Amino acid sequence: MLINLKKFLLSDDLVMNVNEALTITDKELLEKNKLNKDIQFSGKFFKVEKSLLLSAEFTYSYSETCARCLEEFENKIIAKFNAIIVDEVNEDYEAEDIEIMIKDGCIDLEEPIKQIVYLSMPMKALCKNDCKGICPMCGINLNTGKCECNDFVIDPRLEKLKTLLRD
């Protein structure tokens, strides 16, 4: 995922927009997370004094199982990040921005994008915000139909108290 910045660095322009379709080539990342290999990247490069900054976002999708209804669906994520383009990486650098190294006027976005994919994936994904889930008694998907189960369930720890009402 290389982006060539040679012309931008030699020009007098202060801002460069980039909109590209990029491809993730890491097979382990793709298979482990059921990722779609194609992502849509858009970013702005800024020349600020002697620095080069990047403000970007990318959209990726992957197959996920809903945490409520257990149906598989395609989840689409938009991840945003800021980066500083540097000649050499400073190991002691601690900030919210990511450092991306530039070599021969090109930057490689593969590693930052992989890291952001890992960080931006939700812990619990839902197929839709109002997903009803499954019935705990019969297991029917409540999004597709209504079950005939009794909604009134007595906690088994308190079931003995029912006998007191009969006496």
Short description:
With 167 residues, the chain is of the alpha+beta class. It contains four helices and seven strands, in the order βαβαβββββαα. The N and C termini lie far apart (76 Å).
Number of beta strands: 7
Unreliable parts: none
- Average pLDDT confidence is 85
Order of helices and strands: EHEHEEEEEHH
> How would you describe the shape?
elongated
Helix amount, in percent?
10-25%
Report the C-alpha radius of gyration, rounded: 25 Å
**What order do the strands of the largest sheet run in, or round the barrel if closed?**
1-7-6-5-4-3-2
State the helix count.
4
- The oligomeric state of the chains shown is single chain
Strand content: 35-45%
- Number of structural units classed as domains: 2
Largest sheet: 7 strands, mixed
Structural class: alpha+beta
Distance between the termini: 76 Å
